[in-house]
Every structure is written in C-alpha cells, then in structure tokens.
Amino acid sequence: MTFSILSAFSSDIAIDLGTSNTLVYMKGKGVVVREPSIVAINKKTDKVEAVGREAKEMLGRTPGHIVAVRPLKDGVIADFEVTEQMLAYFIRRVHNRRFLVRPRIIIGVPSGITKVEERAVRDTAYRAKASEVYLLEEAMSAAIGAGLPITEPGGNLIVDIGGGTTDVAVISMAGIVYSRSIRIGGNELDEALINYIKRNYNLLIGERTAENIKMELGSAYPLEEELTMEIKGRDLIEGVPKTITVTDREIREALSEPISTIVDAVRMALENTPPELSADFVDKGIALTGGGALIRNLDVRLREETGIPVTITEDPLSTVVLGVGRVLDDIDLLRRVCLD
Length: 340
Description:
Blueprint: H1 5-9, E1 13-17, E2 21-26, E3 30-36, E4 39-42, E5 47-51, H2 53-57, E6 66-69, E7 72-73, E8 76-77, H3 80-94, E9 104-109, H4 115-127, E10 132-137, H5 138-145, E11 156-161, E12 166-172, E13 175-182, H6 186-201, E14 203-204, H7 207-217, E15 228-235, E16 241-247, H8 248-271, H9 275-284, E17 286-289, H10 298-306, E18 310-312, H11 319-328, H12 331-337
Parallel strand pairs: 1-9, 9-10, 11-17, 17-18
Antiparallel strand pairs: 1-2, 2-3, 4-5, 4-6, 7-8, 11-12, 12-13, 14-15, 15-16
Helix pairs in contact: 3-4, 5-11, 6-7, 6-8, 8-10
C-alpha cells in the first residue's frame, strides 16, 4: 500500500456514504458536511438542480420534469452517475469549490459488500476526482468512532442501524470476528409506517411524513405514557386531504416486524461468537449506533431480549464518519483495518 507524497499535503477526507445521509469529515476540521443523500435532476436538461437538504425539500413537491433521486439503495450504489455527481459536489463544497484538488478519500461501506459493489464505490470516487480511495467496513468504522478498544484482544459488539442497512459485528484485535449486514434500516421502517397507515386508515402519506412519525412516536418497547400525533395525508377512497390521529402503540405495531428482524440479527451474532469473546459482552455490553439507535426504547428491547447491557453511542448519527475520520489521521490503523 503506497501513500503518495502529494496526499500528505492534500485535503484528505473521510466519507460516510449512507443511503439516507452523506457525512464528510475533513482532516483537521471534523465533520464538515451532513446532508441527505438525495439529488434533484432536471429531466429536460439532464442537469443537477439541487443536492442534499435542498433536494430533500423537493421530495414529492416537484413538477414532472424535476425528479428527486436517492442514488444509494440498501447501503450500495444504485445509480452510479448520480452518485458520482453527488460525491463531486460534496468534494468541491468542502474544498471551497477548488477544481484542482484531488483528495485521498476513505469511505465507509456496509459489511458484507460484494467485490463488484466495492469496485463500484472505488470507481465512482475516482471519477469524482479522488487521488486514492480506501474502503472501511461501516461496523469497524462505527466501533472506532464509538471509542471501543478494537485493537485489544477482547470482544466488542457493535450494532449500527443506518438508513438502508443494519450492520452487526463482533470485533477483536482490529479484525472482524463475525459480521452480518441486513438490508433493513430507517428507510424500511418508514416504508412499514406508510403501509400500515394505508392498510388501517386508507390514507396515503409521503416519505417525509413517515419519517416525522417515526421520530415523534416510534418506539421498540412500551413507553411510560401514551403519545399521540395528528397526521395529514390523502384519503384513498375520497381522494381528498384528511387528518387522523395515531398513537405510539399503533406505530410500535407498525414497526414491530423490521425491529424484530434487527433484534434477531443481534441474537444470531451472539450465537455465532466464540465463548471467550461472548464473556466480554457481559461487562462491555452492546454498543448501539446509527440513526436507528434514536428509536425510543430500542436499547431497552435489546437488553430485555439478550440479557446484555446496551449503550447508545454519544452521537449515533456521526459515529461512522468519526471512525473513518480517526483512521484518516492514523495511517497504521488504516493499514490494519481497511478492505484490500
């Protein structure tokens, strides 16, 4: 593995290229971009109209010739061209729109990514003007970002619930002992809510409304006091706007299936961990991170089902990019943990 002399002076960046959000960490500056992974494209001109937050504002509200695209699906690139444009936009933005900068980039990718998908991420980053590209599994990145002692000979169990995937991994001595990536994350939870409201109330709601409901009422285990929320949508029978009131119990029921799948993935990790490392979890517990970690009482549910303590990391939404950023500052660690 070689590091060019130029790369030492270039503005190196670390990227958490997520299905829902893209975060960029810049050497010496910390997290400098935190934007939705959405691009708005004008179909008539094939030009990018907006990227990130501005594009998200357009979701479901654009004329026919402007489409808001999510170029990543289930943690991997679904639309190469749009992802390249999005990456190039963020790279230019963090470098104050200087066009000659060719940074060294480290990108967090889902555990279990295929070689074809790996190559697609690398190629896209190179086309977006990277000088060198390194990939790091998100579970490893999250463990580093959470401050877990990953280089020591002891078991660390990390559960990272992102927008498109949930990564569960057991890490010891800077290596992954067991990892599993399931294609369930925040987007599937939103989808489950949309389907539940449609099935039970004949009401059609959009992605943004579903995300708001998840954040306001979503829970994985009964709450101490009942919460309610008014939601607006389109009545599928009458075809007119309608408002209904839902409770946290209903939303918990709507989310029960995808959340049970996540819990099952954690239990499977425990069953597949060597006993010597399993013993470490009793003291260290499970580290829970990613946007999904913010669902109320998910830590309680996991603790109830596994009998192991659960800790939510300090800044769940930034854990992966902070981990990739730390590796950016530590070349020895990069050599140990990056994918070949």
